[in-house]
Amino acid sequence: MIQAAICTIGDEILIGQIVDTNSSHIARMLNSIGVKVARMCSVSDDNSDIKSSIDALLKEFDIVIVTGGLGPTKDDITKKALGELFGSRGYYHHEGQWEIVKKVLTSRGIELFDTNYAQADIPEGAEVIVNRLGTAPCMVFRFHETAYRHSPVLYSAPGVPFEALGLLPDIQKDICSHFNLRSIYHKTIVTFGIPESTLAKKIELWEENLPEDIHLAYLPNSITGVRLRLSIYGVDAEEGKRRIDEEFSKVLPILGEAVYGEGEDTLQDVIVRKLIAGGNTLSVAESCTGGRIASLFTQIRGVSKCFMGSVTSYDNSVKRSILGVPEEILETKGAVSSECAEAMATGVLKALDTDYGLATTGIAGPDGGTPEKPAGTVWVAVARKERDGHITVSSQMFRFSSNRSVNIDRFSSSALNMLRINL
Amino acid sequence: MIQAAICTIGDEILIGQIVDTNSSHIARMLNSIGVKVARMCSVSDDNSDIKSSIDALLKEFDIVIVTGGLGPTKDDITKKALGELFGSRGYYHHEGQWEIVKKVLTSRGIELFDTNYAQADIPEGAEVIVNRLGTAPCMVFRFHETAYRHSPVLYSAPGVPFEALGLLPDIQKDICSHFNLRSIYHKTIVTFGIPESTLAKKIELWEENLPEDIHLAYLPNSITGVRLRLSIYGVDAEEGKRRIDEEFSKVLPILGEAVYGEGEDTLQDVIVRKLIAGGNTLSVAESCTGGRIASLFTQIRGVSKCFMGSVTSYDNSVKRSILGVPEEILETKGAVSSECAEAMATGVLKALDTDYGLATTGIAGPDGGTPEKPAGTVWVAVARKERDGHITVSSQMFRFSSNRSVNIDRFSSSALNMLRINL
Predict the structure, then answer these.
(1) I want to staple A345 with a disulfide (CB 3.0 to 4.6 A). Which of A106, A381, B261, B346 is the partner?
(2) Where are the domains of chain A?
């Protein structure tokens, strides 16, 4: 089967100033067309480093996709290095990309410099996949047998994430037309609320009885829960789907309510689909999660059909004034209590006039805990307006012991999961 | 100088289901103690892959730090592979880690299985750095000259980000005591609002005149702006600081207001420091940014001293009811207008009774744009309560042309930057 390597170039990655998100997007694309990603690596903005590393990858793999190092600044030297590796004698100017460079920069009100003109210069012999979202094009280097016995193909894309992302469909098309790909079929189900080791134990027998040619992968994630992914190679989509659905159908009863979706589904995706299907609206009141839940919802395109808004009542005065939490509750029970969470959920439902209200109040830490309510404690409440107009509300406590930002993520996903189950 | 490689293990990374954030944290740690990270890579959960890749890295580098593949599930096989590579004949049980495994799992109410017991089993000859936050320990393999001429050290840490992060200080201590490190000094200044190519042109002369032994790196980031990082090796901190400050002092006047901080500073960090120093409070009204700005603030420890809360007025009804935006503005000017942004900023300042109010209203896209107000358009307003109690408000329009999530990030950072300049 066709094997690929993904290589990011740039000191900013090696010194840890930037997290590489491109490689995972590229890997998912390759994976979806049955190309196995066998290696990922990062090399520095150094001409000889780039050449030796890419040369090593080209010797071993059929496809090498490089991102980064194509910016206009002096420390971006990928193009020169790859041109030398390819044996280009010089550069040609790509008018199509140059037109876009001018359009992009002027639309952003950015002055044009010769460094920008040079961004449309391409090493001789390399092909171009035009980048419509930015200045640096994607270059395609098709190596001949004389260079590497198996004639690998090298793609060089810009490192700016949304530009790299925008080029993936064209790169995918080029790969499919260049290689004769073996088919692959995956399916992933997503679960929430069962820790990885408990889950593994629960489905141990099922896992042991999986057919030889079906591979299971655990994809644990503290925010979205554990994903279970079955893969089968070398079958057509129809048979793959049939055989994998057959295996999943055996495990679903074991997992029950913990399974909330498929593929790339997130808790908020599933909630939004349910709300829209039921013609219901949602509002959120956040204390310790501080806007995190609202921002998870508003990242979803078209969410305005069901998500009306939220109140971040970080200070208690806001819990009283906007959400109408009784002073007495704050004094006697405290802000981190089932009573306060329920008053917040009811309060935001009323204030924003929605069918559902979701509320969180807790201590993200590291400061502010007590022995009874240590940092990592959160109360979540879900309020619901019934047909007859009266409001029912329920609440639940969760406790975690991580750092502040992980706690905020876990508080948020626990709240989303409680809402999902209550819908 | 001591060179290191960082290797992540796990199919979940190679198939793109998980983004590797550990490597950048590890790289920053190594960098801070003068260890050059020369390579990063990811390999699959395959015994021979792991052994051959790690063997290749050990041949080339002094330090290899591996993360991942230490979970309790069947597809986590790093420990076995590294033990074989190290030549361990068997395993010993590490009581210290086992105590923590029990504590961690029971505190989370998780049932214990033999797979968990095995997590405290260590290949013979390997040392342990105890992991207090999770079940899998960090293992230290000190290879003898007989194995690799330069006696490299291999660290194997769990892949769970906050556990890996928690182990870094101890790993750093071990590296410093094992190796005789050459010193390094860096300083980074952070800018916002000048595109990378324009910035490069602005400081071209300064860059050309930098001393040979001082290295400049551009660290562009669409959210936090372009960072400029100067590094100098082999000098003591005092001299390094003196010489780098001297170079920065020449460029600061050229960059002016665009420079907003140093090191890891974010726009929200700087804003929070200014607000607390001035004894002022802030509230936020978000439409298109949908909670993103509030969640950026609430990730900051101790922000409750100045951040009172926010209203996500995603639906116009919330702009009217909670923020008191006049119906007439929404009808005649529309929700995406300077008038609406200013009414939102003033409204949230009044509703949450704060000194400053920040508001955003725009179209994140991809849907919902018009020729006059295309997707990517945002209005930002900053309201301020003067000493005499009356409120002044100003607004500004920004336009971007990215995808939804990038637009939301850019809207947010543009709003934060406008607030920063207005403080």
Answers:
(1) A381
(2) 3-178, 184-262, 267-422
